[in-house]
Structure to design on (468 residues):
């Protein structure tokens, strides 16, 4: 092993081969502080060529590799297991914006670029990269692509896969595939790009990407709406699509407890409504007309919805600060739930038409099995993605409640499957859900996935133990 480590030091420099336990610590701990892995070393290459050199060495010595970006994942996909036999290959030093092509509406970037960094740089040329996540100041675009991240603007712009035109990837044997093509049409065989996106580093290591850019909207309209049922939220979504068309950018569902936890733990954020409702919707429209036109559109939507008895109350942001306050309420839910204590998270997707029945049915099942459980339900209703989280009953021991995680997962995931949904919408499978995957994927799907894994990574050194 010392020979391997010496060769790594020669390839990238001794200071970028981290062997000290304290130096390795931030790379070994998962984002939610639930698990900690062990690593032979943390390797920090500076560019794609160095990544390729390191992967060749790992292939020669049969050393497992866990590629890591910002380490913000929620399914234990970006940390190694406890064995200490794997290396973590950090992409954080690959952080350059290589090229912005305004005429082609693309940006070519390193995989280690922070999502927020990309947003800021393209904004300087009056363009928009619309992928938006609560962790955008910490997550990297390579990680976003590896998990096919979604976020709050999927309704209008699509998820990470739809926002990427080309990739640069280091394969499991250390070769570099340069697929950095900024083409919107390229029908020349199998789409390798789509195989690597969402593969969580199990097929190869993404080192660069060509991203789609869009014209930057000139104005926004933001509204928070209180409603009395999810079915009314679904009906309102259909109405919003009819009346707002392509301007409808975000349509976020927030249940009562989610909002109350935010106000409890982040009292600096202003309450919008004096009277509580079971559910709330955060809407955003963005467009290229005047601010008055956008405001008129959302006012027309609210007025029509009021007449149809779909909403209880509504508030339209009259300033940037008010809009920011509305978004802060939404983006602070996960942090508020963490401050409240341990919880059991689910990242699921469903046909939008099935969401109301799913929530009602599943809430009853959880309450019957675990009385007093508190449901923190929120997410991207516009694309059918719910964060269906379960917090312990008030005054209960959180540790005791977490001991029932497998049972609660089974209720939620079985119901998700029953209603035609997926147990992972945007977080991935990682190590956390790989056993669950075998329950809900068909034997044919699993066989095809294993065949792809074997073809791309015959020695199983790329993020082993994840997904499959």
């Amino acid at each position: 092993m010392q020979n391997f480590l010496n060769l790594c030091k020669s390839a990238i420099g001794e200071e970028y081969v981290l062997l000290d336990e304290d130096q390795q610590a931030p790379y070994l701990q998962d984002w939610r502080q639930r698990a900690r892995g062990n690593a032979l070393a943390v390797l920090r290459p500076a560019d794609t060529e160095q990544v390729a050199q390191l992967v060749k060495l790992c292939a020669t010595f049969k050393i497992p590799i866990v590629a890591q970006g910002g380490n913000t994942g929620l399914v234990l996909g970006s940390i190694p297991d406890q064995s200490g036999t794997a290396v973590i290959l950090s992409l954080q030093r690959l952080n350059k914006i290589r090229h912005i092509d305004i005429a082609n509406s693309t940006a070519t970037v390193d995989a280690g670029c922070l999502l927020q960094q990309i947003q800021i740089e393209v904004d300087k040329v009056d363009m928009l990269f619309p992928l938006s996540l609560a962790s955008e100041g910490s997550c990297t675009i390579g990680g976003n692509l590896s998990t096919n991240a979604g976020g709050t603007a999927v309704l209008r712009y699509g998820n990470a896969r739809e926002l990427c035109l080309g990739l640069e990837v280091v394969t499991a044997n250390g070769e570099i595939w340069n697929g950095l093509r900024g083409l919107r049409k390229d029908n020349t065989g199998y789409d390798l790009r789509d195989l690597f996106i969402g593969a969580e580093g199990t097929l190869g290591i993404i080192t660069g990407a060509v991203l789609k850019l869009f014209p930057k909207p000139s104005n926004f309209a933001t509204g928070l709406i209180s409603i009395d049922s999810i079915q009314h939220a679904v009906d309102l979504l259909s109405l919003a699509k009819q009346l707002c068309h392509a301007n409808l950018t975000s349509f976020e569902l927030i249940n009562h407890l989610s909002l109350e936890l935010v106000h409890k733990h982040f009292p600096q954020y202003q309450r919008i409504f004096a009277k509580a409702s079971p559910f709330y919707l955060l809407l955003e429209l963005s467009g290229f007309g005047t601010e008055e036109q956008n405001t008129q559109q959302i006012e027309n939507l609210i007025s029509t919805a009021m007449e149809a008895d779909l909403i209880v109350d509504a508030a339209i942001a009259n300033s940037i600060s008010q809009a920011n306050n509305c978004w802060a309420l939404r983006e602070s839910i996960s942090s508020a739930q963490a401050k409240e204590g341990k919880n059991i998270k689910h990242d699921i997707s469903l046909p939008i038409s099935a969401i109301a029945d799913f929530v009602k049915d599943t809430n009853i099942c959880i309450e019957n099995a675990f009385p007093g459980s508190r449901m923190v339900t929120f997410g991207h209703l516009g694309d059918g993605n719910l964060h269906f989280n379960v917090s312990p009953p008030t005054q209960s021991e959180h540790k005791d409640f977490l001991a029932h995680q497998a049972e609660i997962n089974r209720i939620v995931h079985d119901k998700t499957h029953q209603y035609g949904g997926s147990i992972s919408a945007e977080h991935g499978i990682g190590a956390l859900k790989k056993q669950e995957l075998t329950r809900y994927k068909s034997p044919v799907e699993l066989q095809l996935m294993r065949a792809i894994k074997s073809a791309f990574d015959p020695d199983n050194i790329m993020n082993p133990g994840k997904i499959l």
The chain is about 35% helix and 20% strand. The chain has four domains: 2-90, 97-215, 219-334, 341-443. The two ends are 27 Å apart (CA to CA).
